[in-house]
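This part of the workshop introduces the protein records we will be handling. An example says more than a description, so a record of this kind follows:
>
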Amino acid sequence: MRADAVRKREQIVVAAAGELADLAAAARDGEAPKLSLDKVAARAGVGVATLYRHFPTREALLEAVYRTELDRLCDAAPGLAADHAPDEALRAWMHRYLDWVDSKRVMGLDLRNMVASGAIRQVETRRRLAEAIQHFLDAGTGVLRDDVPADDVVAAMAGAVLTAAPDQQREQTERLLDLLIAGLRHHPNPP
């Protein structure tokens, strides 16, 4: 791809991610909006034809957004782990994880279809998340327990997201993640 085509493609993905974040915020306020490809094109500063040239289907665009946002989330882990106390870094990363989950919720049926078709593999997503969490566990010697596998943390985070009450989804999930972090802290003299 030519450099200008790559740049336009990236602009479209960034614009779609921004639209999804806006929709997630609106959904928390009770609305149930759907991603408009016309709005994405306008936000990216390209025509709809350019959007469709890069992403011939809505699913292709959403898959690119999913992968880009997953990369961004997972790539943030090493920096956070290096710059903050391990438990604080993990909590900050989990907050980003919740933002990522919120934007995936508004994908709804589209995301379920991508998983069903194999375009998005849950096992791959879970592996990527566990690798990111491992950065915090590795940096957490003396602060975080060393007997908890990263995949268990992923499962607990997913459980918190899935079980939180719909009318207080974000607030309850944040409290559950705080409990998870408290349980991950190393206690030299447990009761």
